[in-house]
Write a structure and sequence with these properties.
- With 401 residues, this protein is of the alpha+beta class.
- The chain has one domain: Double-stranded beta-helix, CATH 3.60.130.30.
- Helices cover 30% and strands 18% of the residues.
- The strands form four sheets. Strands 1-3-4-14-11-16-10-7 form an eight-stranded mixed sheet.
- It starts with 8 loop residues before the first helix and ends in an 11-residue tail after the last helix.
- The relative contact order is 0.17.
- Bound molecules: fe (ii) ion.
- Fe (ii) ion binds at residues 292, 294, 337, 342.
- Residues 151-173 are annotated as: Disordered.
């Protein structure tokens, strides 16, 4: 463990034994998941939906959370050491596949954990082992190209130095082991298919730019590494869309219709398909995730997380629901990230998370193109959003459907 002195992800991967020099030069292979195989997979899951356990969070009403939502981080996020104090108080929700619903009569889905597909007698990992291997080695080889990584003060407040020091401290929770990410490597890497500057200002005249903004301007070698990594991600995107379609069909169809409405760009067409309906991929790089909500994400939408690596612990913790969900590498969780505070419990080892999500501004862009037609019922949106819509004069484009 000589990683405390590492400056870059390339150095870190070699020092921690996650990649060796020889492997780093090989081209990663994508997992073969053609349309037929994806179709068969969805059918298999649909046939076995009865094997999802249901867990109702009594007393938790999602709509009242929406009604009282203000666009800010939960108050516990300012409590130092909250995660360490809170985790032991949470109820452990074990089991393979489960759907967590609120306690209202609508039984709104809050989260879905998917571990296996198939019947209990013939259960298989939801993410086949060869796909998981492909994702891990593809990720490490991509990181080896030292793509631009950043700090994320919302997700990782324990590693935020408030701009007072040049080098960040190692990531550490009270009582937990240090986990030294590279000192100039950042702890998050984001790939955007689409992005817009107007996140919080307005919902009209949105200018959507295309392409992975943060990494696109790299040299040829880095661009090549990005394309290789995107091809590695594509089968996972396809597979997760299948799981989402089966478990959450109504919301899936909203995401799919947004995806279909987004502009095509020949140069980046491959990127659009690789990332699919979740237009942004965040990768959390071996870093503790502190309690937060994702305020830029689609208000009523779902994100999907897949942890990778070799780690122990790392339960997915939902303090407002009073539960923690054990997760190992290659399992999936869908969650309403914008509305439900979440953090990752204490863990040791190496843990990398692939986070699939879409910014609300992308949905707003599509809504504007459709003349203001709302994708989710406006009455079920937060007050701040309703006000934004009502204050806005939306002028539809000619010919917009
Ligand atoms: Fe999050």
């Amino acid at each position: 463990m000589g990683a405390t002195a590492c400056m870059t992800w390339q150095e870190y991967l070699l020092a921690e034994g996650l990649l060796d020099q020889e492997t780093s030069t090989r081209t990663p292979k994508a997992f073969p998941l053609n349309a037929n195989r994806a179709k068969g997979y969805r059918k298999n899951l649909r046939d076995n939906l009865s094997f999802f356990e249901e867990f109702i969070v009594d007393g938790f009403d999602l709509q009242s959370v929406v009604d009282s939502a203000i666009k800010s981080q939960p108050c516990e996020s300012s409590t130092k050491g909250f995660e360490v104090e809170n985790e032991p108080m949470l109820r452990l929700l074990s089991g393979n596949n489960c759907i967590i619903r609120d306690g209202s009569s609508k039984r709104e889905i809050l989260a879905i954990k998917v571990t296996t597909s198939g019947s209990p007698e013939h259960a298989k990992p939801v993410i086949p082992a060869p796909l998981r291997t492909s994702l891990e080695s593809g990720l490490y080889r991509y990181l080896y190209s030292n793509p631009l990584c950043k700090k994320d003060p919302n997700r990782h407040k324990s590693n935020t130095n408030h701009g007072t020091t040049i080098l960040p401290p190692p990531l550490v929770r009270p009582g937990g082991p240090p986990n030294p990410v590279p000192t100039n490597g950042g702890s998050c890497h984001n790939i955007h298919t689409y992005s817009a500057a107007q996140h919080d200002q307005k919902i009209s005249d949105i200018k959507l730019s295309q392409g992975p903004r943060e990494v696109w301007a790299g040299g040829r070698q880095r661009t090549q590494a990005l394309y290789q990594f995107l091809s590695i991600l594509k089968p996972l995107s396809t597979l997760l869309e299948g799981v989402f379609q089966v478990t959450c069909p109504e919301t899936f169809h909203i995401y799919k219709s947004v995806f279909n409405s987004l502009p095509k760009n020949d140069a980046n067409r491959g990127i659009k398909d690789c990332l699919g309906i979740w237009t942004l991929r965040g990768i959390v790089l071996d870093a503790f995730t502190d309690v937060h909500v994702d305020l830029k994400d689609v208000c009523k939408g779902f994100c999907a997380i897949v942890p990778l690596g070799n780690f122990t612990g790392g339960n997915f913790c939902l303090p407002s629901l009073g539960i923690s969900i054990p997760m190992v590498a290659g399992e999936v969780i869908f969650l309403k990230f914008h509305l439900i505070p979440h953090y990752v419990g204490q863990w040791t080892g190496h843990r990398f998370s692939l986070v699939h999500y879409t910014h609300q501004v992308v949905f707003d862009y599509v809504q504007e193109k459709r003349g203001g037609q709302q994708l989710f019922p406006l009455a079920e949106m937060p007050l701040w959003y309703r006000k934004r819509v009502n204050d806005c004069d939306v002028v539809p484009e000619e010919g917009a459907s």
